[in-house]
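Fresh eyes needed here. Kindly weigh in on this sequence plus C-alpha cells:
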Amino acid sequence: MWRKKRRIVEILQAAIVTGLPFVAINGESALRFDISTLKLHLFGSVIWMREFYLILAASLFFLLFIAFVTIIFGRIWCGWFCPQTVLLDLNESIAGVTKKKHRKTWQKLTLIPLSALVSITMIWYFIPPAETFRSLFVAPTITAFFLVLWLLVYLELAFPGRGFCISICPYAMLQNLLFDKDTLVIEYDVSRDATCMRCDACVKVCPVGIDIKNGLSSACIACAECIDACRSMTAKRGMLPFPNYKGRVLRPKTFWFGGATAIAAIALVLLLWSRPAVDFLVIRDNAALPPGLNRYSFIIHNNGGEKLALELSSSDQVTLIGEHTLLLQPFSAIHGSILVKSTGKLEHLHLRISGNGISINRETGFL
C-alpha cells in the first residue's frame, strides 16, 4: 500500500527536520543561520554572508534539482515531501484514532500542539535549541516570534489547508510548465472504464477533492491515496486498480537534467572544498597622520574549526605599532588596525600573517 510507504517517508522527514538543530558539529548546530553574526553553520563548516558566490552556486544547484525532480517525477514533492502535506497527513493519522463523527474537531485540536512544535522548530534554525528554551517567554523578541509563527502556522494549516496546494502555492503552478508527456503522474485507465464499479472510493479519499476518473488534473498531488482506495475494492475481484502511476523515469531528459544537476552539485562541493582556511583583507585608512606613518585596517576570517594563533609582520623595513599576535576562535573574525612607520621612501607595503602552518601576504599602498 502506498500510504504505508508515504507515512514512513513522512515520519523520517519530520524526525530529521525536528532533530537536526540538536545535532552539534564542532560545537555548533549542524544547520543554522546565526542572525547576529550573519553566518550559516553548515554541517561543521561556516558560510559567511560575504561569500555570496557560494550562495549563488547553492541556489543554482537547488533550482536545477527542483526542475529535475519535477520534470521526471512530477508532483512527487507535493504528495510525499512537502512540509504542509507531511504535517496534514500526520495530523490526520493522529486524529484518526478518534470516532469518525468527532474526527474533524480533533484534527483542529491536534493542530494546536503540532503548530507550536513547527513554530519552535523554525526558531531552532536561527537560535540554538538550548538558548531558545532559556529565552522562551523571557526574551520578548523570541516570545513574539514564537507566538506569531504559532498562530500563522495554525491558521494556514487549519483553514486553507489542502486548498493552499491547488490555489496559492507558486510551485504547484510552476509544475504545469515543466511537465511533459513522460512525466510521472497518476492516471486513470480509461481503457477499462466499462469495468469500473463506480464506488467512488478514489474520490472519497482524495485529499484535494478531485475525481481521477475525469482525467489528469493540475490539482493532483500524486499522493496515491486513490490507488490504495481502488486496490482495496478491486483486489476482491482479482483486478488491478484503475488509477496508477504512469510515466517514464529513464529517458533522455533524465540524463540531461540529471547530469546538469550533478555538475552543479560537484561545482558547489569544489567551491566549498577550495575555500582558504583563512581570509586576510587589508585596507589603508585615509587618516591625517605625520609623514612616514600610515594606519591600516584589517579583517581576518577563520574559516575552519581550529583555534588559530597568528602573527602579523612585514618583510619591509618598517615598524609595526599595535598588537601583533592575534588569536582567532573557530569560525570567527577579527577586525583590527595597526600603525606602520617607515623612515625611508616606501611605495608599497607588504603585510603578512603566519602561524599554524598558514602564511598569507598582502600588498597595499604606502604614503
In short: Residues 170 and 273 are 34 Å apart (CA to CA). The two ends are 78 Å apart (CA to CA).
